[in-house]
Specification:
The protein is mainly beta. The chain has one helix and eight strands, in the order βββαβββββ. It has one domain. Strands 1-4-5-6-7-8 form a six-stranded antiparallel barrel. Strands 2-3 form a two-stranded antiparallel sheet. The termini are close together.
């Protein structure tokens, strides 16, 4: 199943409602797996947004230590942390069906 995914934060700072409405969603499949994450030096539950080709890199930075924050009939919020240039920031994805 494909979702339209919008990142709800920029460098850890929450986007306001106006910025969220204007944000361009990324379309892709969401995979959640446990894997070893080098920047954390441990195993983490990781969410990835994948495009149509399995070997291409994820469409968004990985969402680490991910958890399901909320869910409704037409979408969900995944929350966790992401690494940007060696710095860890809070991040949430708004994932909605098309």
């Amino acid at each position: 199943m494909h979702f339209l995914v919008v990142r709800r934060r920029h460098l850890g700072v929450a986007l306001d409602a106006n910025e969220l409405r204007k944000a361009q969603p990324v379309r892709g499949g969401i995979a959640v797996e446990e894997e070893r994450v080098e920047c954390l030096k441990r195993v983490s539950r990781v969410a990835k947004v994948r495009g149509p080709w399995p070997m291409e890199p994820p469409l968004l930075p990985l969402l680490l230590d991910v958890n399901l924050a909320s869910m409704a009939p037409n979408g969900m919020i995944l929350s966790g942390i992401e690494e940007v240039n060696g710095v860890m920031y809070a991040q949430s994805w708004w994932c909605r069906t098309e």
